[in-house]
């Protein structure tokens, strides 16, 4: 499986070996990192002094395909310059020269930590390698369709597919994406996306690298208030270390041609028709795998991971709407238009209205959390925050932004 060895190898053991990371082309350090190595932190960008600058140079060396010995020689070459990472390697804060054993220990410890950190959260994205690893994850998911059946399986896979698409566009495996941004890539609700993310984290497909929050930006106005911006969660896509055995490919292949189905979701199911008020996500998944050539319901059930009765029930619902046809060779995709079916079901425009509702909710959440952030800390305690209309006493209690009760949200805002 392409990329699987890279995703599952032991970073601690590899860092202890001192070898260069596999798949990283050897190159020189960037001009900024080369200047940091040669001159030290002359601009004061690293608050931890020489140790912070040394770790930054080591991370750059790991990403540049260096080995530990190459880093050691580079540090030794600048050890005579005060304040450089090389000076940190050979001298302690009092200026006394370290022993050779102490120098080796520090370089080995720093290199191992840098390799582990780089593998857990790469400082730079590599778009081709990212696409290879996403393909490996998708291949592992497609080989185990039974993981995506049941009550929550369709939602889990829809959310995972949306995150893979977001990561592919961003060119990195740790994109930032809010619950509502993910929901807008699917037909499931934002609360369903939230629960699906928790299930995917438990199963090992995701990891939260950075929580959501709000950042105050800009200068204070005459009332001591600053503007702010929302920060979405940073989710890291993973390939679980332990997965059940895959399904035999012969059980998924077409018995007439021997061909396997397409490994990538077609995206046809992201439509108003397959929202929860319409035909639903399960029917959308089944519609997505239907082709112009006939396929038996049993083979469809094996490919999508649902039971035979569930697949047949939703095939009948699709057939009633003109989206599926049963012939002598099996089930094929119908000729009815999705827009016409959505209008007949009364769900046309549902995804557009949801996107508009999410826009209002983001504005309300931004206003609430920015005001909350402005009211916290020493600025309020020392009277630095002076909102208009308040002269004495503590700030009034903030009204919570409405998130779930759709009818109470003023859409005219």
Helix content: 40-55%
Cα separation of the termini: 51 Å
Structural class by helix and strand composition: mainly alpha
Low-confidence stretches: 1-8, 389-394, 404-413
The spatial strand order of the largest sheet comes to 1-4
What overall geometry do the principal axes of the alpha carbons give?
flat
Rg calc: 27 Å
Strand content: 5-15%
Q: What do the pLDDT scores average to?
A: 81
| Largest sheet report | 2 strands, antiparallel
User: How many E-type strands?
Assistant: 6
- The topology string of helices and strands comes to HHHHHHHHHHHEEEEHHHHEEHHH
Number of helices: 18
Walkthrough of the structure:
This protein is mainly alpha-helical. Helix content is 48%, strand content 7%. It is built from 18 helices and six strands. The chain has helices spanning 4-8, 11-17, 31-39, 50-63, 68-77, 85-90, 100-120, 127-142, 150-170, 179-183, 190-203, 249-252, 281-289, 297-304, 308-320, 338-345, 350-374, 378-381, and strands at 206-210, 213-217, 227-231, 234-237, 324-327, 330-333. It has a two-stranded antiparallel sheet. Strands 2-3 form a two-stranded antiparallel ribbon. Helix 2 packs antiparallel against helix 7 (100-120) and helix 4 (50-63) packs across helix 7. The protein is flat and about 85 Å long. 30% of the residues are buried.
């Amino acid at each position: 499986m392409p990329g699987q060895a890279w995703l599952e190898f032991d970073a601690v053991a590899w860092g202890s070996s001192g070898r260069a990371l596999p798949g990283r082309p050897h190159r020189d350090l960037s001009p900024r990192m080369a200047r940091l190595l040669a001159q030290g932190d002359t601009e004061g960008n690293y608050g931890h002094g020489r140790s912070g600058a040394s770790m930054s140079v080591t991370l750059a060396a790991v990403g540049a395909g260096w080995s530990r010995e190459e880093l050691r020689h580079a540090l030794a070459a600048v050890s005579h310059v005060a304040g450089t990472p090389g000076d940190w390697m050979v001298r302690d804060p009092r200026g006394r020269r370290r022993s050779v054993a102490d120098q080796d220990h520090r370089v080995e410890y720093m290199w191992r930590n840098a390799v582990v950190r780089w593998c857990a959260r790469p400082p730079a994205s590599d778009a081709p390698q990212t696409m290879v690893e996403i393909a490996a994850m998708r291949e592992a998911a497609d080989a185990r369709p039974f993981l995506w059946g049941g009550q929550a399986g369709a939602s889990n896979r829809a959310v995972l597919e949306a995150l893979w698409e977001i990561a592919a566009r961003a060119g990195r495996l740790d994109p930032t994406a809010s619950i509502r941004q993910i929901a807008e890539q699917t037909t499931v609700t934002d609360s369903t996306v939230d629960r699906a993310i928790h299930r995917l984290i438990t199963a090992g497909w995701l990891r939260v690298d950075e929580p959501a929050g709000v950042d105050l930006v800009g200068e204070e106005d005459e009332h001591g208030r600053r503007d702010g911006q929302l920060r979405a969660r940073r989710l890291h896509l993973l390939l679980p270390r332990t997965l059940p055995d895959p399904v035999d490919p012969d059980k998924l292949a077409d018995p007439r041609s021997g061909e396997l189905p397409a490994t990538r979701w077609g995206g046809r199911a992201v439509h108003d028709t397959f929202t929860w008020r319409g035909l639903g996500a399960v029917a959308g998944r089944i519609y997505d795998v239907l082709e112009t050539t006939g396929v038996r319901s049993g083979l469809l059930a094996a490919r999508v991971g649902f039971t035979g009765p569930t697949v047949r029930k939703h095939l009948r619902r699709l057939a009633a709407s003109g989206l599926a046809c049963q012939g002598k060779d099996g089930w094929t995709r119908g000729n009815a238009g999705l827009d016409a079916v959505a209008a007949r079901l009364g769900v046309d425009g549902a995804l557009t209205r949801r996107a508009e509702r999410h826009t209002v909710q983001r504005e309300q959440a931004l206003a609430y959390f920015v005001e909350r952030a402005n009211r916290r800390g020493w600025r309020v305690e020392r009277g630095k925050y002076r909102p208009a209309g308040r002269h004495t006493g503590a700030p009034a209690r903030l009204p919570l932004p409405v998130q779930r009760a759709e009818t109470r949200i003023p859409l005219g805002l």
